[in-house]
Amino acid sequence: MGLSPGLLLVGGSFAAFRLLNRGLERLVPPPRPALRNRWKWRNIWTSFAHSLLSGAGALLGFYLHPQMAEDLIGTHSPAAHSVVSVSIGYFLQDFVDMLCNQKLHQSWELLFHHSVVSLHLSLWEGVQGAWPYY
């Protein structure tokens, strides 16, 4: 039994966002005020990249599968699953990034948020739809 495409996309997304996060200082050098908190500068840009990617993916999903606009509960598309898988990978990467670079007492709310969102998205991906309604 091989790995599911969704799981592979989660892992690939995690790795891609991790690489982006590590290479961002070369792509977008931090301004002088951000030099004392370089990881936060990288984290914000990585979050921005995820926002652009997931927003474009959501729009593309509705464009390719307009039935989703009529019924978000019962319909879904491969594009929607891809956006969810990429987002899970991003949230896992961001969780690891915060865990490694910020004190727990400063970030526990966001770490909890990322855990809950990742769990919810993983359950959605597992049942292939909006799981609270099944």
TrEMBL record:
<keyword id="KW-0812">Transmembrane</keyword>
<feature type="domain" description="TLC">
    <location>
        <begin position="36"/>
        <end position="134"/>
    </location>
</feature>
<dbReference type="GO" id="GO:0007009">
    <property type="term" value="P:plasma membrane organization"/>
</dbReference>
<keyword id="KW-1133">Transmembrane helix</keyword>
<keyword id="KW-0472">Membrane</keyword>
<dbReference type="GO" id="GO:0071709">
    <property type="term" value="P:membrane assembly"/>
</dbReference>
<dbReference type="GO" id="GO:0055091">
    <property type="term" value="P:phospholipid homeostasis"/>
</dbReference>
<dbReference type="GO" id="GO:0097035">
    <property type="term" value="P:regulation of membrane lipid distribution"/>
</dbReference>
<dbReference type="InterPro" id="IPR006634">
    <property type="entry name" value="TLC-dom"/>
</dbReference>
<protein>
    <recommendedName>
        <fullName>TLC domain-containing protein</fullName>
    </recommendedName>
</protein>
<dbReference type="InterPro" id="IPR050846">
    <property type="entry name" value="TLCD"/>
</dbReference>
<dbReference type="Pfam" id="PF03798">
    <property type="entry name" value="TRAM_LAG1_CLN8"/>
</dbReference>
<dbReference type="GO" id="GO:0005886">
    <property type="term" value="C:plasma membrane"/>
</dbReference>
